[in-house]
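RECORD TYPE: protein structure
NAME: S-layer homology domain-containing protein
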Amino acid sequence: MGKRLYVILIALLSFSFIFESFSISVDAAETKTSAMNNPNKQTINKMLTEIALEYNVPPEIVKAIAEVESSWQQFKSAGEPLISDDGGIGIMQVTNQSGYDPERLKFDIEYNIRAGVDILRKNFNRRDLPAINEKNRNVLEHWYFAIMAYNGTKPVNSPVVQSTGKPNPEAYQEKVYDIIKDFSLTNVTRLKFSREDFQYNPDSDENIKFITKQFYFEGPFTKTKYSFHQGQKAETTADVYLRESPTTDSKGTTLKTGEVITITGPFQYEENVNKQNHFVWYPVQTETGKKGYIASSYLKYRFNDVPVGNYAEEAISYLYDCGLLNGIGDDQFGFGRKLTRYEAVLLLTRANHIDLSNRPDPGFVDINQSYPYYREIAAAVDEGYFKGLPGNIFDPNGTFTRGMMAEVLQRIYQFPELSGSFPFTDVPSGSWYADSIGRLYGAGITTGISPTKFGPENSLTREDFAVFLVRTINWKNAN
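PREDICTED:
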């Protein structure tokens, strides 16, 4: 009996073990099936945003690509991985890419997003793709060719139609920028290319040959809306609601275009978990003390030290948006500070897209190749923009006077000769800056510090030069 009971007990235990094992496998299968459902829109928004920021890619671009590729879907309604006819997998539709696990791409949405963002990051660093200006990672327009390459540098994605030379709105990257406009509510500057920039056979599937490797556009450009931080000032770019909560479902009061606000904390995600808004919300406070939330789409960077309503604020904002000035740090423009000679060099070499490489040593005794802005100064001197001062010095920290400003701008932009005379009694005829001042006056760049005084020896402030530079750029574009 004892032996039979032992056998029975062993059998029962074995059956119990098999039953428990089956139960575990069922639970695992149920968990896997549950995981094969698409997360809510708030969760996807958060994943796309945080992974993009981790890889130093603008979230607007990552979200728009995910929208174009899959409408933010990792799985089909039946719980199966979303796989396109050409083999694209999941939310980012990663296709035929070595180095990524196909099974994880199918079932792990975070892994899929990381793979897509990693591909974008690699595209941005590719040397075989054209560059836009200085390739600022925070500027949405500068990712143009990295976005194109995500889908493929094929004739179908050419920025221009070869037969007409007109823009190609059906190009993949153009569709991505359309999504940024529609879902992030953020306009980008559409870049104008010519058919001479590219070579391809529209009837072939061979890659486009890029004739132009470096493009320069004046802007203004659109910087990512995810870099605002607590204590920083910004301004509204349109009439916008100041919401009570971080959702379009909440009530709000209207703020006018250009209203200055202060960011009071980190951004937050849309409260309604089912809304597919691509933007985020910033908690803010107005100058009058009102508090609430504003969609990131409607905020624009502003230097904290530029007075509201100042005559130079539009010029400063324009130059910042064009990527020509970055301030002096800590969200400060340096308002009221005297412009130095090296700062004038930086602004003018950027504004004119001067190549800094392979420039001869200017030979100044007060700077050498270890000086932080040596390359810019060497290039500016080599271009004939700047000259040294007595004693064979450049004096980079010296004040840039109004007379120097007139002479340098004339060297660069070649304003026409003044017809008639100017009213400035403090500009002696025959002085080294007289002709340049006359030409700037005739072109409408400056009207002097008074109706009869130009102030050629007066120091030039950073905001004054911003105004003069913008007027010069506008004159150049008009002529």
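COMMENT: The longest strand covers residues 281-286.
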